[in-house]
Write a structure and sequence with these properties.
The chain is α+β, with helices and mostly antiparallel strands. The chain is built from three helices and ten strands. The chain folds into two domains: about 30 residues; about 160 residues, Mago nashi protein.
Length: about 190
């Protein structure tokens, strides 16, 4: 066999492998994400308008965690949803609920708006700076049914904290972020419209 023949055969084999792999990818279905039928005990919805992201964390009675994050939501961006799942131990789940129950979350108003930071300029002495982050935390268990939303907040660290949110919402937010970061693993990514 000549060098050219070996090259053509090699390219043919490579092409078949790539086509076969692509077909397998089309036939392979996404993993089934088991979503409990009951309502989540804790839910957190976050929207970052200018960042083009939206996410939702759901924590269910047995400690089951389901998290999805949509990115690319601004015009002209590729929209993607990433699904992650995980599990809290019984002790972790109990501690989270105890903290929320004893934190004073039930005494919060149903919504808060960031008051703004003065940024006066020569042309606009009363100008204020607002953020585009919005967060709603909902709790739905036997002892507490409450939803609290915070709008127009700034976040100096790309949404990791909301330093100006009222306590205990800021602390609950931080604890739920830790759950997202430490207790979930990505299981699937898909394009969305």
């Amino acid at each position: 066999m000549t060098g050219k023949t070996k090259l053509y055969i090699g390219l043919l084999v490579l092409g078949l492998v790539l086509v076969g792999g692509g077909s397998w990818g089309l036939l392979k279905s996404p993993p089934k994400i088991e979503i409990p039928e009951d309502a989540p005990v804790i839910a957190m919805d976050i929207s970052h308008t200018m960042g083009g992201t939206r996410s939702q964390l759901l924590v269910y009675e047995e400690g089951i965690i389901i998290y999805h994050e949509d990115i690319g939501l601004r015009p002209g961006q590729i929209r993607t949803r990433t699904w992650s799942t995980g599990m809290l131990t019984e002790a972790e789940f109990t501690n989270l609920l105890e903290f929320v129950k004893n934190s004073g979350f039930d005494a919060l108003n149903s919504h808060y708006e960031f008051p703004g930071i003065p940024v006066p300029t020569e042309n606009s002495p009363d100008a204020m700076q607002f953020g585009d982050l919005q967060c709603t935390i909902s709790v739905n268990n036997k002892e507490l049914q409450k939803a609290v939303s915070a709008f127009f907040y700034l976040s100096p660290d790309d949404g990791m904290t909301y330093p100006d949110m009222p306590y205990p919402m800021d602390e609950i937010y931080k604890r739920l972020r830790v759950i997202i970061d430490d207790k979930t693993q990505e299981v699937y990514q898909e394009s969305i419209q």
